[in-house]
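Dear colleague,

Following up on Tuesday's group meeting, I ran the structure prediction for the two-component complex that the binding team flagged. I've pasted the input sequences exactly as they went in, so you can double-check that nothing got truncated or mislabelled along the way. The C-alpha cells for the whole assembly follow below. Feel free to forward this to whoever is handling the docking comparison.

Inputs:
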Amino acid sequence: MSAPNRIAATAVLAMGLASVPALAETPFYEGKTIEVLINYSAGGPTDVEARLIARYLGKHIPGNPTIIARNRAGAGGMIGMNYMADVAKPDGLTVAIFSPPVFTEVLGDAGLDTRFKDFVWLSSLAVPQICYVRRDTPPGIEDPADLLQAETFNASGIRPTSTHDIRMRLSLDVLGVDYNYVTGYKGLAGASAAVLQNEAQYSCGSIASYRSSVVPSMVETGIALPLFYYAVVDAEGNDVLDPSLPDIPTFRDYYRSVHGEDPSGEVYEVFEAVNNLKTSLQRGSFVPLGTPEEAVDALRQAWKALETDEEFLGAYEEAFQAKPVIAHGEETMALIESLDDIDADLVSFLSDYIAAGSDN
Amino acid sequence: MYDMILSSLAAVVAWPAIGYLVLGTILGLFFGAVPGLSGLVGMAILLPFTFTMEPVAAFAFLLGMYAVTTTSDTLASVLLGIPGTSASQATILDGYPMAKKGEAARALGAAFFVSAVGGLLGALFLGLSIPVLQPVILAFAQPEFFMLGVLALTMVASLSGGSILLGLVSALLGLLISYVGYSPTDAIPRYTFDVIYLFEGLPLIPVILGLFALPELLALAVGNTSISRVDQTETRSRMLDGVYDAIRNWWLVLRSSAIGCYVGLLPGLGGSIVDWIAYGHVVQSSRDKSRFGEGDIRGVIAPEAANNAQKGAALIPTVTFGIPGSAPMAILLGALLIQGLQPGPQMLTTKLDITLSMMWTMVIANVLGAGLLFLFGRYLVRLTFVPGHLIVPGVCLFLFMGAWLATSNMGDWVALLLFGMLGYLMKCGGIPRAPLVLGIILGPIMENALAISLSAYNGYGWIGRPIVVVLAVMVVVSLGYAIWNHAWRGSATSPVDGLDAHMPRPGVVAARPVDQLLPLVILTGAFVAAAVLAVDWPANSARFPLMTGIPGAVLAVVALGVAFRHLQADRAAGRGLGAPPQPLGRVLHFAFWLLAIVGVTILLGQRIALPLFAGLYLVVWGGYGWRVAVPYALGCLSVLMLIFDQVVAVSWYPALVLR
C-alpha cells in the first residue's frame, strides 16, 4: 500500500472506530476493499465529486473497508455503465458513483448494453443549473424580466446532445425569446468564458461552475445578471427549492413573474420531464443486481450517514459551493422506474428537437 | 508590495508548506517520468489530500507536483524515445537521436537546465504581468483561436524534414484522425463504425506512443543494439555540456519561454501543443536546419524551455478569471474553491499573498526538480548503454501501461498497436510523423472554433477583427517563408530532379521509395473513404472532413507518383531496391509477441501477461538465463503492483480467468 493510501486508510479507520458502535457479528465489509468506479476520466467534475464522496463514505460503513477510486471513462459514460453490467461482480466490492448517461438511456442507444433498472441503486445527487445573461445585451437588461425584450442574442452550449444544451433551448423556447443557439464550447467553463468575451450573451451552468467562474468575473463585476435556476418538481407539482440559492427564482417562478401564468404546453412538459430526470440524477450510485442484501444495506446506510457528517458537508460545500441534495434507496429506485413511463412521443420529440438544433 | 513578495516567500519556505512542496516536487518528478502518468493524473490523485491543509501548503503540494512533470518527462523522451507526458512529444525528435549517438547526458543536461529557466520565467511572468493581461485573454475568442490553429498548421512545413509533400499528407491524416467521434456541432458520430471506444475520439497518448515509441522498441528488439549506438567508453557527453549548450543558445531559451508563456496564457491550447510550436519555431528560425531530426541540441532546448514556461502562465486565466485552460487547471480551480478562495480580481488585491505564494512555489519547485534530476540523471543515462534486449521488456511494460491509463479499455491497446503499425510503415517510408500529431491536436481546435465563429458572428462577420487580421498576415508570412525557403533549399540540394532519391535529405531518414508505396496506398484509400463517408453529413460536420479528405487523396496520389518516379530512376541507374531497414520475418515475429501480450491479458490479466512477457522474452528472444529472467519478471510485477495498482489505482483488464 502506498504511503498516501495508508495515511488515508489509517485516518478512515481511526474515524470509523470513533463513530461506529461495536457490532456483535462481523460486519460484511470487515477487512475488505471497496472499489469505487467513476465513469469519467480523472480530473473532470464527476471524478472530483465522486472522489470526494469516496473519501468520506468508507468511515460510515461498518467494518471500515478501504476504499479506492478507479476511473473507467469513455463514450459519454457508457463504457462505465457497460462495465458495471457485464464485468463487475455482484459481491458488493464494486460500487459505481457515476454521472449516469440519462439521455442515452431514454433515447435508447445501441452502444449501451444495459438498462438503468438492471442495477440496485443506492442514492442519487441533484445538481441544479443556473442561467444568466449579459446586462449589455441590446437594448440592455436592467431587470431579469427584460430578457423577453432582448434582441436576438447568442446562447452558448457544449454539444447538441448534452442535457445542458437541451434544457437551455427548451427553457428559452418556453419563454418565447429570440435567440441564436451556438454550441461546441469546451465544457461549462468554455461556455461561460464565451459570455465573458461577449461572443455569447446567455448561458447556464451548475452551481459549482456558476459560483467559481460566473459570479466573480461577471456577476460581481456587473457584467451579467442571474435569471433563474431549474428546480426539480415534486410529486405534488411543487418546485423543490434549493437551499443554496435563496436569492434566485426557480424557472417556474421566473416564468410566472414575466408572463403572469404557469408555463404550459408540450415544450414545457418535455422540459419538466427532462429536467426532473437530469437534475435529480446528475450523479447516481449503484451496485450490480444480486449484490448481497447486507452489503446494499450497509452502503445505503453510509450514504444516509453522509447527510449528517459535518466534515463531509463542509468539504462538499467548499468544493461545490452548494449543499449536497441526496436522494436515497427507494426514492432513487422510484426515479429509475419512472424512466419506463416515458412515452414514445417524448422520445421522438426529443430526437427531432436535438436534430433541429443542429440545423441552424 | 515588496514586503508582500518577501512575506509570501517566507510563507512558502515555512514548515509545513516547504515539506509539502518538497514532497509534491518528488511526486511530480515521478508522475512526469512515467509515460502515461502526467500532471493531470497527479492533480486528481493529490487533490483529496489537500482538503484539510492550509491554502499555502495545499498549493505548495499541488503546484510543486504540477510544476515539474514537464521537467522529468524529458527522461523518457530522451532515453527511451517515449514521451513522458504529452508536453514533451517534440523533444523525442532530436532528444532520442542524441541518445542514440551516446549524447543522452548532454541532452538531459540542456533539457533540465532550460526547464528550470523556462519554469522560472513562466513563474515570473505570472507574478509580473497579471494586471495587464486581462484584455489580451479576453480578446482571444473563437475566431482568434481558429486563426491560431491555422498559424500553427503552417508549422507543418518546418516539421516535415525534407519533403513538404509528405509532411502535408501526414498532417492531413492527423486532421482526419481528429474527426473520429461525435461531431462537436451535430448529434452525429463520425468514423466511429459503431465502436463505442471511438465515440469520444481517439485518446492522444496511445496514438503517440504507438506512432513514435513502438517503432523504436521494434528496432531495439530486432537489432539488440543498446539505445546508444556508441559505446559508453567512446563518448564523453556530460550533463554540464548540455548546460553550456543552453547558455550558448540563451536567445532561443528566452524566445521558447515566451512562446510557452503565450500558449499557456490562452485557455484551451494547453501542454500537448506547446512543445510542437516551440519546435516548429526553432526549425523555422534556424539558418542551418540540416541536423534537425538527427540530434540537434536546439531541438531539445526549445520544447523543454517552452513546456515549463507554459505552466506558470496557465495559472493566470484560472486564478484571475476562473477560466481553466486545461483539465489540471480545472482541478486547481476546484482546489481554490475548497480553500475558500474565489478566483477573480481579488486574487490580485486582497488575496495577492496567495497568488504570490503560488509563484514562489513554482519557482522553488522548478529549481528543486531540475537540481534533483541533475543529481540522479547520470545514473539513468546508463540505461542507454544497456543491451537492447534488457531494455525491451521494461519499456514494453511502461508503453502498454501508459497507453492503458488513457481510458483503461482494450481499445487503448488496439489503438497503440494499430498506430504502432502505422508509425512503423511511416518510419520505413520516410513519411514524417510529427505533422500527423500536429494535425490530431489542431483538428478539434480549428474545427470547433470555425463552427462556433460562423454561428456566433453571422457567418464571416468575424473576419475583420484586428487580431484575426494580424494572425492572417502572420499565416501568409509563415507560408511565404516556408515556400521561399523550400524552393531555395530544394534548388541548392537537388539539381537533377528525381535522381536524388538516395541522397541524404535533411531531417528525413533516407527511405527506400519502395517502402513508401504501401503506406501511401493505405493513406490514399483512407482519404477517399473519409471523403465518401462525409458526403451525406450536415454541412457543419462535413466541412472539415471533405476539406481534408479530398486534398489528402490528391496529395497522396501525387506522392505515390513521385515514389514511382524515384523507383524508375533507381531501376534505370541499376541501383535495385536497396536493403530493407529490418528483416520482415523478425518484425512480424516481434509483432506476434506483442499480440501475445494482448492475448494473455485477455485470458489472465495484465499483472500476469506483462511480467510473463518480460521473462519469456529475455529467455527465448534475448538468450538470457533464468537467473536474469526471473528477477526481471518479478521486478516488472512489483512495478505493476506498487506503482500502477497502489499509487495510481489503475483499473485492470477484467481477465477471463483469475480476475
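Confidence is low (pLDDT under 50) at residues 491-509 of chain B.

Cheers,
M.
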